[in-house]
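Just wondering, does anyone understand these tokens?
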Amino acid sequence: MPQVDVTSRRAAEAPPRLPAMKTFGERQVARATRSNTDIARDFIDLSFQMESGRKLDILTRFEGPISLRVVGSGPISLASDLGRLLSRLRREAGLNITITTDESANINIVPISKKEMQRVVPNAACFVVPNVRDWNDFNKARRGPRVDWTRLARREQVAIFVPTDSAPQELRDCLHEEIAQALGPLNDLYRLPDSVFNDDNIHTVLTDFDMLILKTYYAPELRTGMTRAQVEAALPRILSRLNPAGDNQLVDMPQPTSRAWIDEMHQALGSARATNSRRSAAERAIAISQSRGWLDARQGFSLYALGRLTIASNPDTALRAFQAADRVYAARPETRIHRAYVGVQLAAFQLLQGNADSVLAIVNQHINTAFEHENAALLSSLLMFRAEALELQGRVSEAQLVRVDSLAWARYGYGSVQAIEARQREISQLNPAKRRTAGL
């Protein structure tokens, strides 16, 4: 039986007590700031290898206008978020992509329950496969060569399976990542600090770098069937035309990510193993990154993973890991959003100690970053911490206004009432004043 690769993103009601859901508006467009030499290397590594490490012999893409349809019905947020994404793809990546209702559509968005999806592809929040148009078609073909990306000679039709029962943000994130991979690169690279083409899932919407990669993918100088060597030869001229500023940027050339580090991180992030085993894997990943001198997002992510895995069992170790991750991320402007994730953890430690001023300082440092990166879940969490800190300072009316704002963003970021209330309760219980009141 041939090995089948799928590219995936690893895995609402409106009650009266919650405010109206907030969503994001038009995104400010900025240009990628890395050197074209680095971008060319990233393009090749993204385009000629699968996430599993299997090689791709040729470049494949859709040739001509690209059509997309939604199969059946999905959550209310799907249409608006899909419309915004397609508008960006046309405007920023220059793609000729339109909505259709025809079964011959190139890209088929198939909403399906998460339970049904993970019955077939465990731990996947969403995924994309070639040469099928719906769930029944995929189930008939999933054990055969038709859905094997490495055997694909030309992209004509793909299906993207997205969850119908997830938070609006998770569904939007799936649309961004899976449509990008349906159109272009199939690989993820941990070394990329500014891309959704990264298994760390830090970036939730397509970045300026990602749009440049897709625009390059559909440059007229490239075509389906080109070999790695042919694409490498064409890239310098293409990137000079599309990103002239990149010709004058300093070349970074980070070391390739070793398979050993990737394997340790996959074990650390996997939910099937015991926590002790996952923690040991994170520690080994940190050791690998330090031995190779990776003072970048990879070492930061290793430390962040260790912190998350030791919060319950060893808070002191977790705090040191988060502080070290913060230092790594603080050294690079492109990892501001990574640092904001760490900031949530550091705010939790400060709130637990009753240090309201420190909590507010952390929140104020990262809240604009969360907004700029359109991460409502992160934004709502930061606002919840702000509300608790304001209450500690006796600023109760201000805290209430901030809390209402946090819930409006949480409706998009977390979705269900149960998930929102669980997150709010988790943060509230860190407040020492409330812990004393509850007798904790």
User: Anything to note?
Assistant: The beta strands are 7-10, 66-70, 97-99, 107-112, 124-130, 158-163.
